[in-house]
From TrEMBL:
Lineage: Bacteria, Pseudomonadati, Pseudomonadota, Gammaproteobacteria, Lysobacterales
Compartment annotation: Cell outer membrane
Keyword Heme: no
Residues covered by the Polysaccharide export protein N-terminal domain: 73-157
Family: Belongs to the BexD/CtrA/VexA family.
Organism: Rhodanobacter soli
Keywords: Cell outer membrane, Ion transport, Lipoprotein, Membrane, Palmitate, Polysaccharide transport, Porin, Signal, Sugar transport, Transmembrane, Transmembrane beta strand, Transport
Signal sequence range: 1-22
Record-annotated Outer-membrane lipoprotein Wza C-terminal domain positions: 337-356
Annotated ranges, domain SLBB: 163-238, 247-334
Top-level taxon in the UniProt lineage: Bacteria
Annotated protein name in UniProt: Polysaccharide export outer membrane protein
Pfam families: Poly_export (PF02563), SLBB_2 (PF22461), Wza_C (PF18412)
Amino acid sequence: MKKNRAFIILSFALLVNGCVLAPGQRMSGEGLVRGTPTDSSQIQLVTITPQLLTEDNAAVLSATVPQALLSYKPEPYRVGPGDTLYITVWDHPELTSPAGSQQQTAANGRLIRSDGTMFYPYVGSVKVAGMTIEEVRQDISTKIAKYVERPQVDVGVVGYNSQHVLLQGAFKNTNPQPITTVPLTLGQALGTAAVNADQANMSDLILTRDGQDYHLDLTALGNGHGIAQNIYLKPGDRLLLPFNDTQEVYVMGEVLHPLAVTFRSVSDISLTQALGRAGGLNPVTSDGKEVYVIRGAKNLENAPAKVFQLDARSPAAFALGDQFRVKPGDVVFVGAAGVTRWNRVLSQLLPSATLLSSAAAANYSATH
């Protein structure tokens, strides 16, 4: 993969900067596609136009949250091992608070053991794991009615420890979050976990559910009128927020400060912003017509790399660049002006010519 990517970038650089054989010779878009230094089947040249941006924006808008996530509705909470229940039998404090009413609520709670059972006075060991709160209440009421006339029973959960959502990655708080009787939304989970915005890849939150991975763009969710609040989480879900240390765009060529630009989301940085972070085009050596974005060099076996071209010779062109979003792994390359390429050819030829001239002069002096 790395060799293919390096091959495309190197070939492209040779085409743009190294194919100068005479003063004023240039490499056009047609020459880029048909040039011999690289296989034309591996490169597709695309001009950045308003029509292209309209199509890209439409594609972004159509990328919605998977329906499977939006359609999920939480079921009533079912208790499990590790949960603690507080059972109230009205007018019978000896059953409600056997440790004494002055004790904290948890001290009078009933822990569900690892086998899914709990102990209750008079009733003994009761299998409650997998029951809803109402089912536990009815079961206790029925069984204790042998000892208490017309019992009025209430059941609540005072310790949630059986069901969780797991969190990994660029969160400030990665502690598991419990599923409770109050449904947990994705927005609430993210708020509790506190996203580390400086280190997170905001465009690729991975929600794993029942063996299926769902990739979500947090930036899009944030701008979607709180759509994250409409996604409910279920027990066993996992949220993985990758770090952005591999989220880079490489700006090189005739810019003032070539660099790798790190960003948080695929919708975070435009072509204009990437060029701006590199100090902009070099006003002396660059050719504004030859601003390129190389994309897809990692997947040449399956699809040709795309090379997007922006004619940035007029200020209005940067309006197009401001709407064109760069993606992780893109290479922004600015070609050299014709005179710059010719000067570089001369700088390589002149030392050789001087050396030959000196050798010829020395040989002439030796023979005369």
